[in-house]
Amino acid sequence: MTTAARSDAKLRALRAHGAVHPHPEAVTDPAFAGSAFFDPRDAVQVKYEMVRRVQAEGQRVGRAAAAFGFSRPTFYQARAAMAAAGLVGLLPRRRGPRHGHKLRGEVLDFLAQARAADPTVGARWLAGRVRERFGLAVHPRSIERALARPGEKHAPPAG
What 3-state DSSP class applies to 68? Predict the structure, then answer.
């Protein structure tokens, strides 16, 4: 595999894991200039090295943050993450809600009752009814997932 192909493969992997540095061109630290090892596109590597420079070499926080293309708050977040979990703490976390936060309680009960009353209604139709009744914009796929989850607590079917 050529160096360019390896570089492309690494960039694809970084993107897939959300670990691409948002501004690799802003990394001015000399270790990253033309290095085969240090990669300014790798946010985890850059954050680690930024924290290491401050803790092991005594570099000032503002100077280190600037040299690695991050802000001071990002430095402090990275340092806290490393203190709490080591290098794993620098791995990106999944953004956004982790569950159907709109589809709880009364809304989920409404969906279950509507589906029980007519099992042929589709998620797109249900999404329209949720918008009308609750003023919530919910994607049809979110409705499908919520109704398919085993053990969800909702009102018994109207009968």
Answer: strand
Going by C-alpha positions, the residue among 100, 78, 98 that lies closest to residue 90 is: 78
- The helix/strand/coil state of 17 is coil
What H or E segment, with its residue span, contains residue 7? helix 3-16
Which of 26, 65, 60 minimizes the C-alpha distance to 49?
65
Helical packing angle, 105-117 and 123-134, nearest 10°: 130
Q: How many CB atoms lie within 10 A of CB 59?
A: 16
Prediction pTM value:
0.60
Tens digit of pLDDT for each residue in 104-130?
889 999 999 999 999 999 999 999 999
List Cβ<8 Å contacts ≥24 apart for 114-118. 115/147, 116/157, 116/158, 116/159, 117/157, 117/158
Whether residue 24 contacts residue 45, with contact meaning beta carbons closer than 8 Å, is answered with: no
